[in-house]
Design brief:
Layout: H1 3-16, H2 19-27, E1 38-41, E2 46-48, E3 62-65, H3 68-73, E4 77-78, H4 84-88, H5 93-107, H6 115-122, H7 126-137, H8 141-159, H9 164-170, H10 176-187, H11 191-195, E5 202-206, H12 214-220, E6 229-232, E7 235-242, E8 245-254, E9 257-263, H13 266-271, H14 277-288, H15 294-300, H16 305-311, H17 325-334, H18 340-354, H19 369-373, H20 377-381, H21 387-402, H22 407-411, H23 415-423, H24 430-439, H25 452-462, H26 470-477, H27 484-498
Helix pairs in contact: 8-9, 17-21, 17-24, 23-24, 25-27
Length: about 500
């Protein structure tokens, strides 16, 4: 059907509907009529979808038109709340609503003292707000506001000399006590300690009472002969990319404290004046999984029989992440359709091939996108990569280097957008994308469909006769929402506990 024919069909249908019928539809915010007609408000000069959440004018102030072209021709402007232009272009209204809402929060987090004020700014109900933010940020609206307030406070503490109390109030906290409590819970240190980060070569993190490092060390040392991570009696050693340079960190757990110290290479000191403490803190928090909402997960278990049964024989698991999203994506591509042992072997071979050497003893850092983008496929096939896997890995690295794929930006935005952008790349499917969202970006409600370990764990957990299909896996994991990343990790761990 051509645009002209489609427009004629809409006009014909519009003639059969009375103004009273269409007015009742917009009073009910009826989504099923979106695309069937437009509400054009004479007093404001805007045109809206029937489902627009804005307050409705009197019927006498409305014109009903069949198409967007008609509305524009009559001089009406796009409604900024329901965005009919996005609807007619086939873009997601909800997705854009979330992105715009996130931008508003980040521009002035103190503007939203309550969740209700955030809902009002978007012209939606608090129920819709909760659904929207759960879907895109994998957080509750209150948790999203807190996260963004803390991020704004971190920036202010780093780049200004404001009093700590003034910083807390400026980003939207109601009192100094509330600011200190929330900051310490999110950053594992006080605001004062954070402010000193960039003038030191070490820091200490206060660990939760139920934290144990065992799971994190097992995750980071999947390859027991790793060239880029090391664990001994003195602690955990790893090199991190900081401002484009490798920085070796050493982590030591002492009771409920994680002590981190680092050494900078001479070329870093000579060529960079940028402070490093804040960036090292961010990566260490990732390595230890300290951004995991274990308390929320376990609190939810009190009302959720599936969660309660899952955690009854499992200690608290803080989900460790890779130092940066690219490292996780590399691991996910390497691990496609092969077992863990062989994946670890390929990872070690890749690091030996392309990872820069740090120091005198052959210790290496995981290669960045730049090093991998400069490889030729044959160099990877020579170390037992399949040709397709070699092409996927180099292709992704080149996308990162050119800026076509901005992993850091995706990490700070919508999980829906991040998964879609990753899956647009050759060789990236749902499992690879969702694993990267879990371990590389920290999204809390991911199900890595296609994971054989998850299939086996679900079969065991639900006592099924056979392993579930992809569709069945999605269904079986629903009771664990909005904590499916933690639930997945616990299910993986249940296989190890049984063995």
């Amino acid at each position: 059907m051509t645009a002209t024919t489609q427009g004629s069909a809409m006009k014909s249908k519009l003639l059969r509907w009375s103004n009273d019928f269409m007015y009742q539809a917009i009073l009910n915010h009826a989504q099923k009529y979106d695309g069937k007609f437009l509400t054009c408000v004479k007093s404001t000069g805007i045109y809206c979808l029937p489902s627009c959440p804005a307050r409705k004018p009197l019927l006498k102030n409305i014109r009903f038109l069949a198409t967007e072209q008609e509305a524009i021709a009559e001089g009406f402007r796009i409604c900024k709340r329901c965005r009919p232009d996005l609807f007619y272009r086939g873009e997601s209204v909800d997705e854009n609503l979330f992105i715009e809402m996130l931008a508003r929060i980040r521009s002035c987090p103190s503007s939203f003292s309550r969740v209700s004020s955030l809902a009002k700014s978007g012209g939606i109900s608090t129920t819709k707000l909760n659904e929207l933010i759960r879907l895109h940020a994998h957080l509750s609206p209150a948790d999203l506001l807190n996260r963004e307030r803390i991020k704004a406070a971190c920036s202010a503490l780093t780049h200004s000399s404001q009093r700590i109390l003034d910083v807390g109030l400026a980003v939207g906290f109601e009192s100094e006590a509330s600011f200190h409590r929330q900051f310490s819970a999110h950053m594992a240190m006080t605001p004062h300690a954070w402010r000193l980060l960039n003038s030191s070569s070490e820091f200490a993190l206060k660990l939760p009472d139920d934290f144990t490092p065992d799971y994190a060390w097992r995750y980071h040392l999947r390859d027991k002969d790793s060239l880029s991570e090391h664990l001994d009696k003195t602690g955990f050693t790893k090199a991190l990319w900081v401002n484009g340079y490798p920085v070796v960190i050493h982590l030591q757990i002492d009771g409920h404290t994680a002590n981190c110290r680092w050494t900078l290479p001479e070329e870093f000191i000579a060529n960079s004046e940028q402070p490093v403490g804040v960036e090292i803190h961010r990566q260490v928090m990732r390595l230890l999984g300290l951004n995991t909402d274990v308390l929320g997960f376990r609190s939810n278990a009190r009302q959720n029989k599936h969660m309660a049964r899952l955690i009854e024989s499992t200690s608290a698991i803080y989900v460790p992440m890779t130092a940066n999203p690219f490292e996780s994506l590399v691991w996910a591509i390497i691990g496609q359709q092969i077992n863990l042992t062989f994946a670890a072997t390929l990872r070690q071979a890749l690091i030996k091939l392309a990872g820069p050497v740090i120091g005198q003893d052959g210790f290496r850092i995981h290669p960045s996108a730049k090093e991998i983008s400069e490889l030729e496929p044959h160099q990877l096939t020579d170390i037992r990569f399949s040709r397709s896997k070699a092409q996927y890995l180099i292709g992704v690295a080149k996308a990162v280097v050119t800026g076509a794929l901005d992993l850091d930006q995706l990490e700070q935005g919508s999980a829906v957008v991040a998964e879609r952008k990753l899956c647009e790349l050759k060789g990236i499917g749902p499992w690879t994308a969702r694993y990267t969202l879990m371990r590389g970006m920290g999204f809390a409600d991911c199900v890595p469909v296609g994971d054989s370990g998850l299939y086996a764990a679900l079969q065991q957990f639900y006592q099924l006769d056979s392993r579930p299909s992809t569709a069945e896996t999605e269904q079986l994991m629903k009771p664990f929402s909005p904590f499916r990343t933690q639930a997945t990790t616990c299910l993986w761990e249940s296989l190890r506990n049984k063995s």
